[in-house]
Amino acid sequence: MPxxxxxxxxxxxxxxxxxxxxxxxxxxxxxxxxxxxxxxxxVGESGSGKSVTAxxxxxxxxxxxxxxxxxxxxxxxxxxxxxxxxxxxxxxxRLTMIFQDPSSALNPTxxxxxxxxxxxxxxNPGISRRAAHAxxxxxxxxxxxxxxxxxxxxxxxxxxxGMSQRVMIAMALANDPALLIADEPGTALDVSVQAxxxxxxxxxxxxxxxAVLFISHxxxxxxxxxxxxxxxxxxxxxxxxxxEQIFANPLHPYTRALLRAVPKISEAGxxxxxxxxxxxxxxxxxxxxxVEPADEVAS
Amino acid sequence: MSAPxxxxxxxxxxxxxxxxxxxxxxxxxxxxxxxxxxxxVGESGSGKTTLAxxxxxxxxxxxxxxxxxxxxxxxxxxxxxxxxIQIVQQNPRSALNPRRQIAASIRLPLDVHTLYxxxxxxxxxxxxLEEVGLDASFLSRSPRDLSGGQLQRVAIARALAxxxxxxxxxxxxxxxxxxxxxxxxxxxxxxxxxxxxxxxxISHDLAVVxxxxxxxxxxxxxxxxxxxxxxxLFAAPRHEATRxxxxxxxxxxxxEAELRDRFRAETLSKEGQSP
Lengths: 299, 275
What we know:
heterodimer; A: 299 residues; alpha/beta; seven-stranded mixed sheet; 12 helices; globular; B: 275 residues; six-stranded mixed sheet; 10 strands
């Protein structure tokens, strides 16, 4: 169950690329939060800013040149908007990530065991290969992989996409992270494998009490997975609400268009929708009961 | 009833990979009727793409025959047949030559098939751009300056340039965002009606298929397991592979969730009956 402890808190985050003067701002004041054990979705189309937000939280973008960040990003209470040692040290341990395409996220020249050992060493540098093997094998059993020993001695190209994705989930959870960022997990897989993989991730995160920030362009996937949803459009959060609120009563014109645009198994034909409309730029709308932590304190 | 536009008769395809036989398609029989939008659905590995490759002549079947308007399709396709069957692929960024301007990409088939007088071809390219909702301002642009949705429109214009009878659409919108997808699907539907085209629409997303198709054929591990009108298929899916595909679709409305839960319940009760 989600508790009150805020694991991740973004306030007025702005991100720009390029030299000052000619810089292009791509995030225009993003605010969001994730509490302990909560599953929160960040939904938007390509170019909306959802993936750069993830890379900012991981402290990866800050290490590149020509990137300027303002505002605040707090992870387990520490300020990490500027990147730096704290987040670098947390990466792979208290802060982990699952990527869209598992086969390219795993190194093709090392066995799964080699890579799993590396992952476990992040949290426990002295762990022996034997102890790592036992732990990895248990984790692979937890993600429902049959014959974990065979998987551990394999290379990624010897595994199916679905199996690789399960390996990634096991690795991402193995160090008991406070927050798992899942960036479109499974979109590279076909629909039924994707559905199974997400269900598995959901069950494990719930069991372990891991907070998840789930990034997706697909509202349908989000409905089954998230407790709360942020919709992002062109670098701005446009709507924030509980999953039932968003789906039963979408408030923002952009969210409404997104929902109508998803093809439905219950109806034939296609809606007539614009790719862009002025009112997609309307200000952010928060559903009742959905406020950011700073506002809670103030009120 | 007239002869089907394309008939696939007892077609099988085996690939030899590293000394092993891989059966990609197994005794598939299917007719595509002129004017319909016929969807081919299945999970990865079900044989969808192999079937598409046989139809465009990239591979020859191991057994069986493909017929175009009642006549067997030759292994070496004459130019006229290549023109009549066009394909629009999943990823337009890799389907279009990145170093060629948009005008040149659309014009190439007009030159290859000597359609229209040379002088008239530039005007024809502009008309084709307009058909797909773009305009003359795109002529001198390069693929890297276009969005995914715009590129897919260009790929569609290039297929239309050939004045084809059948277009194979291989997951044409699965790399696009939902709003862009809705617009492109709408465009494809309009073009089919206006030009009397026949579509073979390959997809793993049954919700998209529901929106655009007249008939649906479901593939599972190289076999055709079910062909039905789209209404009938969703009212009463007969094969387990069809149910699996429907159940896997992420849903956004209550109506959809109810429909899907009904299928899930039926599948469970069927599983309960078998030993």
